[in-house]
Amino acid sequence: MKILKYILLLILLAIIGTTVYVATQPGEYESEQSRVIKAQKSVVFSYVNDYKNWEDFGSWKDDDPSMQFAYSDTTIGKGAFYTWKGSYGEGKTETIFEKENDSIVQKVTFSGNEGKAYLTFKDTVGGTKVTWHSKGKLSFMDKAYAVLKGGAEKMIGNMQERTLAKLDKVISFEINTYSIQVDGVVQKSGGYYFQQKVTCKISEVQKNVGLILPSMLRFFKDNNIALTGSPFILYNVFDVPNNKASFSVCLPMREEIFTAEGSDYTSGKLEPFQALKTTLKGDYSHGKEAWDKALAHIKKNNLAENKSGSYIEVYVTSAAQVKNPSKWVTEIYVPVGQAAATEVVPSPATGATSTNTSTTTATPPTTPKKAATPAKPAVREAQVIE
């Protein structure tokens, strides 16, 4: 019995000693890690700024496969957030500040404690230097877990390091895996569409589409309006010298909808037209290359670009359906009027690690002009806005 008492006493002393040791550990943490990501700054920033992508590169999912995620309606920019729940607890990360292509500040809540994370993006040799600085407070249980992992700063620093390494790997594949195919001249079908008009800097086109499109789709769902195809962008102005784009984010529908005066939403009708169709499979950052190929094809084949026509991007497969950018499909339609020579359709151009690709979305003309009325070329029927 005495031996048993001594053993119990030793266990009790060990528990008390461990408790005291954990309690005397720092109640705050601060850690910083950096890594050069092999991609353009605007590409890296856009990818990190969308919380739908965090599940793919965050190292915490590797540590806890049972972790479940939920997202705000808008996952991009200030006010966006995601929550998680797993074996080690639950938490929330929210963007409280962002500066385009420069920095993001997050408020992180975990087990009742609050912290902050600061992400900065800087151009450097070989890509983009991403620096991730975190600081905050620890609960007693957090401190106990950190002791087992060698200390809070080591534990958090290791998590940051692994996450940044995974980010580099994911971006290298997802962003730089793409193909561009010039499909030829088609007859583009028309129809009614619902739109919200936007004017912004060229570099902010995709960000604004990402912010506006979810709310438009939610409007359709709440009002039981049926989509008749895929969302698309209708360009009005693309002024490269002045870094200005004017366009409409559109949802195709069967009938015209009348909205209240002053509403952000209006209806429009797209008339059928002849267009050179080009398909981009991959991330939107390769959009400029796709538009350049389309315009080069028009010039090479002596097609007449109808500069008063409709310049359109159709999101056949987008982030709303598939998270992986390498699987996105975007169709580009450039209005044309005639083909004075036999059209030559090249084979697809496939990219792997293109680091000099601009993130500009398209290059329609800034001052549309009326095209001559030419003879029509042989065309193929296109799908209805999809």
TrEMBL record:
Q: Disordered: where is this region?
A: 345-386
Q: Which domain of life is it from?
A: Bacteria
Name the residue ranges with Low complexity bias. 346-377
Matches recorded under InterPro entries: GyrI-like, Reg_factor_effector_dom_sf, START-like_dom_sf
Which ranges carry the GyrI-like small molecule binding domain?
A: 232-336
Instruction: Please report a single Pfam family linked to this protein.
Output: GyrI-like
- TM segment ranges: none
What's the protein called, per UniProt? Transcriptional regulator
Originating species: Flavobacterium microcysteis
